PhzF family phenazine biosynthesis protein (Actinospica acidiphila), 214 residues
Amino acid sequence: MTAYDVLRVFCGPRGGYGNELGVVRDGSVLPGPDERQEFAAKLGFSETVFVDDPERGVIDIYTPTTRLPFAGHPCVGAAWLLDVPELVTPAGVVGARQDGEFCWIEARAEWVPPRTLRQYATAAEVDDLPVPPKGEWVYAWAWLDEPAGRIRARAFPGRDDGIDEDEATGAAALLLTDRLGRALNITQGTGSQILTAPQPEGWTEVGGRVYLER
């Protein structure tokens, strides 16, 4: 069996919740894209990361059904685990830093695949949403406290891979931050926390807590 770590990324203030992430630290054991795709499907996490160069931070990201040039929670988790100043992804070089209990990455909205950002009037409406039909990637959100930048969100990938809802999605949070042009404190899923902040020249920081599960 190929060795891998399991992290929880974007955990809540008390260390719970977060989105699970599989990380294969030695990507050379599964060098081909077909092998990696098969392994990611077998693990069944929303994303799995293969590390191709731990010192330079070169990573490769897969969902159970497809390869991604960039994704938020895999980059935050890999940056925390490898403790590197940057990650190299097919989309571009992702800045990374540790700040106390939070790990941050810096990326660009144009790296994120299309998402539907759908605003609702209240957090209760977001809480009550059923899983929408397949085919459309929906990030449902509402203000909890607009002056404070606090948001309630849920993410529905719309893929046919058994993952109806993502517990925490950094890329969608990045898109929303880019659209709103302000720092956000997002409560997503059952209790995950994602922090974001716009940066100069079109960059956005996304941060959260990461814990090693096993």
About this structure: The chain has a mean pLDDT of 96. Helices lie at 33-43, 72-82, 123-127, 170-180. The chain has two domains: 5-104, 111-202.
